[in-house]
Design goal:
The protein is α+β, with helices and mostly antiparallel strands. Helix content is 52%, strand content 10%.
Length: 400
């Protein structure tokens, strides 16, 4: 006779455990202490087996019958329900361990092993760890296109269309890595092609007027914020390097006796080492903040001595100085130097070498790397002296 909900509720505890049958192999085991457990008895491979279906009342009578019927369907397909349950638990554990965050960390480690530039790794880390944070703890196989779209649209709505586009690409790369390592079935970002607005192409704003650049340099010198942030902006202008190069500058790369900064190939955009002659002014800036960090970084973050400054911190400092994002950016200082030096008649080839631009001609490229170092020593000092001249002219105007 089949059980009823009322009969189950009234089933009393006894001195020993006993069973109440519901039929079809399903029964309720009433324990000595009064707890009531659902069990399904079945035969598989000629042997009798028992499958636990949960406890009453958490698992109702109707739910227990559904679970029994599901188990019978597996038996009809010659699948042992207990084995299936164990395999499902293993799969769930594997899925829980293979989160988007964990696989992203593996992907970043592979970039490092492949010798990618530190700036490339840092940009990917920012995209995957910061902008993709809502996905970090989700099993990668369970993430839907809709979840990813929400993350992308949040970035897009903040006005960072290019970042949203790059984010979709790098998330897709992580998923394809997961597919290749058998931890995901497909790349859900494929379905999101065309879902984002195209980025607005803008040239990086830069101040190319000597008078205005002098005023900016005075403002940077007077910046009363974090010392390494002020030094980073000063070095950015003095060395004509990229923000990522300056942010990731390490103490071991600075050779004071030779007045030289040696940037390793893995950190350079063009994947070749670059030597930057340091002017007297650049050396003075470095000596001024040399003891700020005990780590290997010359310009540590405000929040952690083991992490570098962010490019956003540099741009934020420029905004606090009163310069809008349409006037100047951290990356725009290279354009300032290039424009002014070319207008003043300095050797264009030496300027290009100082900017670490890749020459498409192999012979010219080799020549630039070997012969132009001496010329660049002169150029960098001349550029630093010009910046001082621009500063002084602005100070004189202010005093007048």
């Amino acid at each position: 006779m089949s059980l009823t909900h009322t009969a189950i509720l009234k089933a009393p505890a006894r001195d020993g455990a006993y069973k109440l049958s519901d039929g079809g192999g399903l029964h309720l085991l009433v324990q000595k202490g009064g707890s009531k457990l659902w069990r399904f008895r079945y035969r598989f491979g000629g042997k009798e087996n028992m499958l636990a279906l949960g406890a009453f009342p958490e698992v109702s009578l109707a739910a227990a019958r559904t679970r029994r019927d599901d188990a019978k369907k597996l038996l009809a397909e010659e699948i042992d329900p207990n084995t299936k349950r164990k395999l499902d638990k293993v799969a769930a554990a594997v899925a829980a361990a293979n989160t988007f965050g964990a696989i992203s960390a593996e992907y970043l480690a592979r970039l490092k092993d492949k010798g990618c530039a530190e700036t490339t790794i840092e940009k990917n880390r920012w995209l995957l760890e910061d902008l993709s944070a809502p996905l970090a703890n989700r099993p990668i196989s369970a993430i839907s296109p809709a979840e990813i779209l929400i993350v992308l649209q949040k970035v897009e709505k903040s006005g960072r269309r290019e970042s949203a586009r790059r984010l979709r690409g790098v998330i897709g790369t992580v998923f394809r890595f997961a597919v290749a390592t058998l931890r995901a079935k497909d790349d859900p970002t494929y379905a999101l092609r065309g879902a984002l607005l195209p980025p607005i192409v803008q040239h990086r704003p830069a101040i190319t007027d000597e008078s205005r650049l002098g005023a900016l340099m005075n403002s940077i010198d007077e910046y009363d914020g974090w010392p390494t942030l002020r030094a980073a902006l000063q070095l950015l202008v003095l060395t004509m390097t990229r923000p990522g190069d300056v942010r990731l500058m390490r103490r071991s790369e600075i050779i004071f006796p030779k007045a030289l900064w040696r940037i390793p190939a893995e950190r350079m955009k063009m994947r070749r080492p670059h030597e930057v002659p340091l002017s007297r002014q650049a050396l003075a800036v470095l000596r001024g903040i040399w003891d700020v960090s005990a780590s290997g970084l010359v310009l540590p973050s405000i929040r952690s001595a083991s992490k570098p400054l962010s490019e956003n911190a540099m741009n934020a400092a420029l905004r606090r100085l009163g310069y809008g994002k349409d006037e100047v950016t951290a990356h725009g200082f290279r354009s300032s130097a290039s424009t002014i030096l070319n207008e003043r008649g300095f050797n264009p080839d030496v300027i290009e070498a100082a900017l670490a631009h890749q020459d498409e001609d192999d012979v010219r490229r080799a020549y630039n790397r070997t012969t132009y170092l001496k010329e660049r020593v002169v150029l960098m000092q001349d550029w630093a002296d010009l910046l001082d001249e621009f500063r002084q002219q602005q100070m004189a105007l202010r005093a007048a």
